[in-house]
## 1
Amino acid sequence: MSEQPYFDTVNTVEYYVGSAKQWAFFHQKAMGFNLKAYAGPETGVRDKVSYLMEQGNINLIFTSFLNHNSPIADHVKLHGDGVRDISLKVPNIEETNEYVEKRGVVKPGKIETVKGDFGKVKRSVIPTYGETVHSLVDVSEYDDKVPPGFEPTDIKEKSVGLKRIDHIVGNVEDRKMDTWVNYYIKGLGFEQLITFDDKDISTEYSSLRSKVVQYNDRSIVFPINEPALGLKKSQIQEYLDYYNSPGVQHIALETDDIVKTVSELKQRGVEFLYTPAKYYDTLADHVGSIDEDIEDLKKNYILVDRDEYGYLLQIFTKPMGDRPTFFYEIIQRKGARSFGKGTFKALFESIEREQAKRGNL
């Protein structure tokens, strides 16, 4: 990308949930996040509560409502617990908004300024698929890591080794994927990275199509999925049925030692999709030499794939809430820049086993 970057990185991901306190507690105790800051009635916020969680460079906010006529309550009633806002840090919000508006696809919201003890934060909002939004956040005139309106806490937890967001995946309706890919490319200046069709991602029962867009040498990476016609219901369609709209399917969190991270997460109670033992019988034939002990991968159900740059290891949690919608991916990259094309069939079969248990395949 030759022009100056107008977007830096994913700043925070905010979830709207039924109980922010419970989601924060789970992420602290089960996933090794620190409770970085809190906002609620005790800090002067009257209509909601928010918990800001941190691990490595990952910042998550869990927000819940305090009265039944809140738009947050409406969101949770319709969608269940899920991601509302993928906030993007920008170097200069006036320049970014002008750049986006000139591209003629989306009009950014009005720039709002929030003042705090450490300066001011500027913010505007643009829509994306479903009811998901991107807050554009400029912190160039703010000198603290805790946002205005939040009060810092001192509740630490032992990290499980999660260090950054690798990518965030959105699910959209059939035949809408290209519309949203073009939205990011034409509207925001992203570039298309890779495409998977229903021949790449399928089993005998179901399939999907996916395209990946990225910004500024993969500083921000958004795969976008749509369901494809199969003999039975796609996992993407199951998501859309339960979320009642397009939305964020999963967030991939990167670690430098996936065996250690996943082992710790399992001990803390995080549930992962099962991979049959037979997958590992021919793993070496498919991916060649790897540093990890295959028995360790087998014990933890970790998948492996290789591309021209190296290999990656990945695993997927079961849904994090009551509905079969949002989940996490844990990923370690050993040079690979792809997304696990060679593991898609094994992954899909694992997901289909869970769908069958729910009667939704």
## 2
Amino acid sequence: MSAKILALDTATENCSVALLVDEKVYVRSEVAPRDHTKKILPMVDEVLKEAGVALADLDALAFGRGPGSFTGVRIGIGIAQGLAFGADLPMIGVSTLEAMAQGCFRKHNASHVACAIDARMSEVYWGRFVRQQDGTWAQFDQEQVIPPAVLAEQSQADEHVWSTAGTGWDAYGEALAGLKFNREGSDVLFPDAEDIVQIAKLELEKGNTLDAEEASPTYLRDTVAWKKLPGRE
């Protein structure tokens, strides 16, 4: 199935955009923790111009739905919704943890990936994923926010070697060293729209899209996010 999909992500320190046109991908990516709002729309304009397509020509708009920075996730979804509303496009939300698993596959052909994003507050956003024959990813561990020491204590050995992805491994290396399964490091630190767009293509083929007003974030730490809203301190 040929497809034209725009993907964007601002859920972590990395700000990225990818445009899939048939089988070619146009990408922009920059680690810019405090400049997402300044950089994301120019990146969108650049890839559309490079590909020679208009927003209205697209089949869908994909976005990193989180988990990640509360502010970053909101920025990404808000901009994605605005673009989708304006061009009347369906949307596809993709887990940022799953996107890192896809990044490990793209770079290292990894099929078993353990993802940990530094969630601050002495916790990580955690998930493990196993690549399926059809190119999709199955959750081995449910996505969650958890203290690394608790995660290590609850872990169990298995026969696989898990590629690691995300900032949590460097942030909490000592605690995560207690995990009971085998691991090998990778250079994948952040989710990237280049990988989100590939996951979104498979979702589009299955008809798994949302109307723009239905797009929602995955915070995993909803109670903390709620408390940070104005008037809810």
